[in-house]
From TrEMBL:
<dbReference type="InterPro" id="IPR016156">
    <property type="entry name" value="FAD/NAD-linked_Rdtase_dimer_sf"/>
</dbReference>
<feature type="domain" description="Pyridine nucleotide-disulphide oxidoreductase dimerisation">
    <location>
        <begin position="347"/>
        <end position="460"/>
    </location>
</feature>
<comment type="similarity">
    <text>Belongs to the class-I pyridine nucleotide-disulfide oxidoreductase family.</text>
</comment>
<dbReference type="InterPro" id="IPR004099">
    <property type="entry name" value="Pyr_nucl-diS_OxRdtase_dimer"/>
</dbReference>
<keyword id="KW-0520">NAD</keyword>
<dbReference type="InterPro" id="IPR050151">
    <property type="entry name" value="Class-I_Pyr_Nuc-Dis_Oxidored"/>
</dbReference>
<keyword id="KW-0676">Redox-active center</keyword>
<keyword id="KW-0285">Flavoprotein</keyword>
<dbReference type="Pfam" id="PF02852">
    <property type="entry name" value="Pyr_redox_dim"/>
</dbReference>
<dbReference type="GO" id="GO:0004148">
    <property type="term" value="F:dihydrolipoyl dehydrogenase (NADH) activity"/>
</dbReference>
<keyword id="KW-0560">Oxidoreductase</keyword>
<feature type="domain" description="FAD/NAD(P)-binding">
    <location>
        <begin position="6"/>
        <end position="328"/>
    </location>
</feature>
<keyword id="KW-0274">FAD</keyword>
<dbReference type="InterPro" id="IPR006258">
    <property type="entry name" value="Lipoamide_DH"/>
</dbReference>
<dbReference type="InterPro" id="IPR036188">
    <property type="entry name" value="FAD/NAD-bd_sf"/>
</dbReference>
<dbReference type="InterPro" id="IPR023753">
    <property type="entry name" value="FAD/NAD-binding_dom"/>
</dbReference>
<dbReference type="Pfam" id="PF07992">
    <property type="entry name" value="Pyr_redox_2"/>
</dbReference>
C-alpha cells in the first residue's frame, strides 16, 4: 500500500473546514484542504454571514437616516441610495476576508487542493486529476439552499432568488415576497425593506423564527410588523409563475383551503438549507446519510468509517458558522490525539436584524418540559430594554432580556434577548452557562453603567423577583 500523502485531508474550506485545516497544521500534521470554489471561506465568507452582514450594516445606517431615527437625535439628513457602492463595499469585505484565509493557509502550510473532491475508497479521494490518500479525512462540505418543489430559482434573472441572489439585486424591488420567516428571510427581508421595498413574508407555521423562545418569536413578529414587514402566517406557497420580470405566487392556508394569489417583482426562497453530499461518492467510502441528509457522527466527530470525520453544516446540529468553527478545532485536536470537545447545549444563535435577536440554551417551553420529567420547575426573570438607561438614551426601546433558571438549583438553563446589541450581549450568558453559573452569579456580577448588558443583570435579579429598575 502506498504511503499517505497527508495526515489530514479536509474536504471543504468553509468555517468548519478551513479552521480544522489550520488547527491540524498548527498541531504538526501534514494537511491539505480541498475546495472547489474559487475562493476560500465557504458559504459563510462568500455568500452567507459576511456579505449579509455587510448589507445589513449599510442598510441599517441608510434606514436610520431615511426613516427618522437620526432626526430624533437632532441629525437631519435626506439620504441618497448609491446601491452600486453599497454592493461594492460588500464585495470588498468578502474579498479581503477570503483572501485572508488564503494567507493563513500559506502561513500554516496547509495545501489548497483546488477542485471538488470525491471518495474513491475509505482513505482516498479524487480532486480534479489528482488522487490523494490521507490517514484522516474530514468531511466539511457545508450546506446549500433547500429548493421549493415546483419553484425555479434563477439568481441571474433577479426575480425568483435564493439568499445568494438576494445579496446581489441590482435595484431595490418594489415588492419582495420572502418565502419562509426564518433567519435568512428576516435578515435579507430587512435589508430590502430598509432600502425601500415593500416586503411580505409568507410563513408556513403560525409564528416566525422556529426554534426560538415563544415570547421572543411573538415580540420579534410585533417589532418587524411595526417596521413595515407584512406577515402571512400559517400560509404555504404552492407555486410561483414568472412572466415578464414579474412573479405571481399562489398561496394556500397551511391547513388547506382556498388559494389566493400575490404579485411580486422579487421572490426570495428561504425555507432552510440542506447538507452538501451530492458528488462526494460517500458510498465508495462505505458511508451513508441519515434521513435529513446529514453524515452521522459520534461525540468525537467520527463517522462510522475509521479515519473519516465530519463537522459543520453537513453533520447534525444547528447550521451556524461558529458551531462549524468550534467543531473544526475540536476535530483537529481529536485527530492529533488530544481531547477536542464542543458543548452542543450552549451554542448561541443570533438574528442580525435591528434590534438583534439572540438566544442560548433552552427556550422556556423546552426547559419546562425537560424539568417536568423529574418534577422540577423553572424560574424566569425578564427585564425590558425600555427600562435600561443606555437603550433609552439611544432611543432603542424595543425588546427585553429573559433568563430561565432551574427553580431548585438556580442554574441558568437559557437566555433570550431582543436588543440592538443582543448578539454581543449573549456571549456573556453563554460563558456564564459554560461555567455552570446560577442566576445569582450573574445578578451579583458588577456590570458597567450605562450599558445594554445591565439588562442581563437585572433580568437575573428578576429570577428571584428583585430587579431594581422595574
Ligand atoms: P460551508 O461554509 O457551506 O462550506 C463548505 C465548503 O465546502 C463550500 O465552500 C463548498 O464549496 C465546499 N465543498 C462542498 N462540497 C465539496 C467537495 N466535494 N469538494 C470540495 N469542496 C466542497 N451562520 C452564522 O453563524 N452567522 C451568520 O450570520 C450567518 N449568516 C448566514 C447568512 C446566509 C445568507 C447564509 C446562507 C448562511 C448564514 N450562516 C450564518 C450559516 C453559515 O454560513 C454556515 O453555518 C456555515 O458556513 C457552515 O460552515 P461549513 O464549514 O460547515 O460549510
Ligand atoms: P430557517 O430554517 O431558519 O427558516 C425557514 C422557514 O421557512 C421556517 O420558518 C419554515 O417554517 C419556513 N418554511 C418552510 N417551508 C415553507 C413553505 N413551503 N412556505 C412557507 N414557509 C416555509 O431557514 P433559512 O432562513 O433558509 O436559513 C437556513 C439556515 O441558515 C438557518 O437555519 C441558519 O442555520 C443559517 N443562517 C444563520 C444566520 C445567522 O446565524 N444569523 C443567518 C442566515 C442563515
Amino acid at each position: 500500500m502506498a504511503e499517505y500523502d497527508f495526515d489530514v485531508l479536509v474536504i471543504g474550506a468553509g468555517p468548519g473546514g478551513y479552521v480544522a485545516a489550520i488547527r491540524a497544521a498548527q498541531l504538526g500534521l501534514k494537511t491539505a484542504c480541498a475546495e472547489g470554489r474559487e475562493t476560500l471561506g465557504g458559504t459563510c465568507l462568500n455568500v452567507g454571514c459576511i456579505p449579509s452582514k455587510a448589507m445589513l450594516h449599510a442598510s441599517e445606517l441608510y434606514d436610520h437616516a431615511a426613516n427618522g431615527t437620526m432626526a430624533k437625535l437632532g441629525i437631519k439628513v435626506t439620504p441618497e441610495l448609491d446601491l452600486d457602492t453599497m454592493h461594492g463595499q460588500r464585495r470588498d469585505a468578502v474579498k479581503q476576508l477570503t483572501g485572508g484565509i488564503e494567507f493563513l493557509f500559506k502561513k500554516n502550510k496547509v495545501e489548497w487542493l483546488k477542485g471538488y473532491a470525491a471518495f474513491t475508497s475509505g482513505d482516498t479521494v479524487q480532486v480534479g486529476d489528482r488522487t490523494v490518500r490521507a490517514k484522516n479525512i474530514v468531511i466539511a462540505t457545508g450546506s446549500s439552499v433547500t429548493p421549493l418543489p415546483g419553484v425555479a430559482i434563477d439568481n441571474d434573472a433577479h426575480v425568483v432568488v435564493d439568499s445568494t441572489g438576494a445579496l446581489e439585486l441590482p435595484k431595490v424591488p418594489e415588492h419582495m415576497v420572502v418565502i419562509g420567516g426564518g433567519v435568512i428571510g428576516l435578515e435579507l427581508g430587512s435589508v430590502w425593506r430598509r432600502l425601500g421595498a415593500k416586503v411580505t413574508c409568507v410563513e408556513f407555521l403560525d409564528q416566525i423564527l422556529p426554534g426560538f423562545d415563544g415570547e421572543i418569536r411573538k415580540e420579534a413578529n410585533k417589532i418587524f410588523k411595526k417596521q413595515g414587514i407584512e406577515f402571512k402566517l400559517s400560509t404555504k406557497v404552492t407555486g410561483v409563475a414568472v412572466d415578464g420580470g414579474k412573479a405571481t405566487l399562489t398561496l394556500e392556508p397551511a391547513q388547506g383551503g382556498d388559494a389566493t394569489t400575490l404579485d411580486a417583482d422579487c421572490v426570495l426562497v428561504s425555507i432552510g438549507r440542506k447538507p452538501n453530499t451530492d458528488g462526494l461518492a460517500l458510498d465508495k467510502a462505505g458511508l451513508t446519510v441519515n434521513q435529513r441528509g446529514q453524515v452521522e457522527i459520534d461525540h468525537d466527530f467520527r463517522t462510522s468509517v475509521p479515519g473519516i470525520w465530519a463537522i459543520g453544516d453537513v453533520a447534525p446540529g444547528p447550521m451556524l458558522a461558529h458551531k462549524a468553527e468550534d467543531e473544526g478545532i475540536a476535530v483537529a485536536e481529536n485527530i492529533a490525539g488530544q481531547t477536542g470537545i464542543v458543548n452542543h447545549d450552549i451554542i448561541p444563535s443570533v438574528v442580525y436584524t435591528w434590534p438583534e435577536i439572540a438566544g442560548v440554551g433552552l427556550t422556556e417551553e423546552a426547559a419546562k418540559a425537560k424539568l417536568a420529567e423529574t418534577g422540577g420547575e423553572v424560574k424566569v426573570g425578564k427585564f425590558p430594554m425600555m427600562a435600561n438607561s443606555r437603550a433609552k438614551t439611544n432611543h432603542e426601546p424595543d425588546g427585553f432580556v429573559k433568563i430561565i433558571s432551574d427553580a431548585k438549583t438556580d442554574r441558568v438553563l437559557g437566555a433570550w434577548i431582543i436588543a440592538v446589541p443582543a448578539g454581543t450581549m449573549i456571549a456573556q450568558v453563554a460563558q456564564a452557562m459554560e461555567f455552570g453559573a446560577t442566576s445569582e452569579d450573574i445578578a451579583y456580577t458588577c456590570h458597567a453603567h450605562p450599558t445594554h448588558s445591565e439588562a442581563i443583570k437585572e433580568a437575573a435579579m428578576g429570577v428571584r423577583g428583585k430587579a431594581i429598575h422595574i
